Amino acid sequence: MITIKRYVRAESLEQAYELNQKRANRILGGMLWMKMSKNAVQNAIDLSDVVSAEISEQEDAFVIGAMTVLRALETHEGLNRYTGGAVRESLRHIVGVQFRNTATIGGSVYGRFGFSDVLTMLLALDVRVELYKGGIVPLETYAEMPYDTDIIVNIIIRKTPMKTAYLSSRNSKSDFPVSACSLSFRENERRVVIGARPQKAMIIRADNEVMKLADADPEEFSNALAAQVQKEVKTSGNMRASAEYRRHLAKILTKRASMQILKEGRTGLC
Ligand SMILES: Cc1cc2nc3c(=O)[nH]c(=O)nc-3n(C[C@H](O)[C@H](O)[C@H](O)COP(=O)(O)OP(=O)(O)OC[C@H]3O[C@@H](n4cnc5c(N)ncnc54)[C@H](O)[C@@H]3O)c2cc1C
Questions:
Q1: Which of 11, 232, 242, 250 has the most CB atoms around it within 10 Å of its CB?
Q2: Which domains does the chain have, with CATH numbers?
Q3: How far apart are CA 56 and CA 111, in angstroms?
């Protein structure tokens, strides 16, 4: 169980940052993950007054305040138009609506959880993480950084033209995914992100041989991309599935998501 000695509603980002430098203090997101830990927290730092909980759609990007709840992303018309519904698909299986009305994007990105649908989805897009002290870093870089004491202020999704699709496989509804897969097809890149390996999501970019088939028959291209993913993805076994089963799922989900983009013409293009 987590115990909290003092609750602090931060009045400035600087105050929140200063407090967060002490090991016994913690930033609060929706507290859904944190409440399951066995921590004794001295000061629990609420960012509600200093970090936005809104999505601002701008001409070239979506700027999402770190306190925005997952449900707001799931139901955001602009984000789903841009991703052809992939953002909604990535979030709608996470526990339940009440849960997604509380879990924040900031807590989800900071966590960089292996099982994360959120990280898997975002890594397929052109995403930057805005940190209070650390500036703006690509999500791909942030995902590999060690856990630190900076504060995520915004998640920025640039409107780079691309088509996207998201699929996951679960043993039972609302459980953690056994495998998660998001694809983005851009002008010069075909990107596959495989999450819940069960390690943190990894990016696989179509190699030159597969790219040669980019204008070929959709099935031929999708088979080649899926075969590359099956070869390169690194998986492990745990209580939910074996490494081999996850590797198989990564192939299947990649093929299906690729076919969705190529056959159903998922529009992620703005
Ligand atoms: C039972 C359960 C099932 C789940 N299933 C799934 C699933 O299937 N798929 C999925 O993708 N996710 C799943 N999640 C994860 C969930 O979606 C959230 O990612 C998670 O709860 C963290 O969000 P939070 O707002 O609750 O963060 P918190 O628990 O409040 O915080 C998590 C961490 O982030 C830090 N933090 C929070 N905000 C910031 C910030 N702005 N800057 C810096 N650090 C910050 C906190 O200090 C803490 O260390 C599950 C979680 C639970 C508890």
A1: 250
A2: 3-46 (no CATH), 55-158 (3.30.465.10), 163-263 (3.30.390.50)
A3: 23
Contact 230, 222 (CB under 8 A): no
Do the Cβ atoms of 68 and 54 come closer than 8 Å? Answer: yes
| Ligand 1 pocket mutation, candidates 34, 52, 64, criterion most atoms within 8 A of CB | 34
**CB 32 near ligand 1, within 6 Å:** yes
Give pTM, 2 decimals: 0.96
**pLDDT tens-digit map of 178-189:** 999 999 999 999
- Nearest-CA neighbor of 194 among 226, 146, 218, 223? 226
Q: What is the tens place of the pLDDT at every residue in 40-87?
A: 999 999 999 999 999 999 999 999 999 999 999 999 999 999 999 999
Query: What is the token pair recorded at 264?
Result: 């159903």
Q: Is the CB of 103 under 6 A from ligand 1?
A: yes
Tell me how far the alpha carbon of residue 66 lies from the centroid of ligand 1, in angstroms.
11
Q: Best substitution site from 13, 31, 32, 193 to test ligand 1's pocket, by max atoms within 8 Å of Cβ?
A: 32
In a 13 Å sphere around the CA of 195, the CA atoms on its Cβ side amount to 26
Helix (H), strand (E), coil (C) string for 51-111: CCCCEEECCCEEEEECCCEHHHHHCCHHHHHHCCCHHHHHHCCCCCHHHHCCCEHHHHHHH
| Residue-wise pLDDT tens digits, 20-32 | 999 999 999 999 9
